[in-house]
Amino acid sequence: MIQIGDRIPATTLMEYMEVEGNGCSIGPNPVDTVKASAGKTIAVFALPGAFTPTCSAKHVPGYVAQFDALKAAGVDEIWCLSVNDAFVMGAWARDQKTGDKVRMLADGSADFAKATGLTLDLTARGMGLRSNRYSMLLKDGVVKALNIEGPGKFEVSDADTLLAQVKAGV
To answer: CB 167: neighbour CB atoms within 10 A?
Structure first.
């Protein structure tokens, strides 16, 4: 499992965006995790699935609400990762009104989740292999903070917790 001090794995996530106003799509576009994180401070949060109750009611809205505070504390980007396809993540971004605040990145085949060791097997619930719920702070692709939730929990991966860690200079 990935640890504080480790580099994030070299994988490709996918991103789908809509051009505001005319409804045209851009993507899905590949996002190389190593290149996209180089030289940046990134708040990453991952969750089991788009449009699921806790993820939609608390996790994503918390990061959207804390966008300005995270930016002021030195975070360059916020990434939301989920084991869904890029089209679902794009629709969820629209539904959650993430705009340019949170990059909604698809880990469709769970490659990033598997490479980090942060998978969650929800096969018995009809959802297959998913990402565990967690947050991490990356600086130039290196994990500086890692907050992994216990099964069914939402206590340490929220935006307020990661913001406090950023402000503490983690």
So the answer is: 13
Q: Which among 14, 44, 55, 106 is annotated as catalytic?
A: 55
H/E segment holding residue 129 = strand 128-131
- Per-residue pLDDT band for 22 (boundaries 50, 70, 90) equals low
Residue 27 has pLDDT above 70, yes or no: yes
In words, the CATH class of domain 12-167 is alpha beta
Q: Based on the residue annotation, tell me whether 80 is a catalytic residue of this protein.
A: no
pLDDT band at residue 135 under the 50/70/90 scheme: very high
d(CA 10, CA 54): 29
Alpha-carbon dihedral 154, 102, 66, 146, rounded to 10 degrees:
50
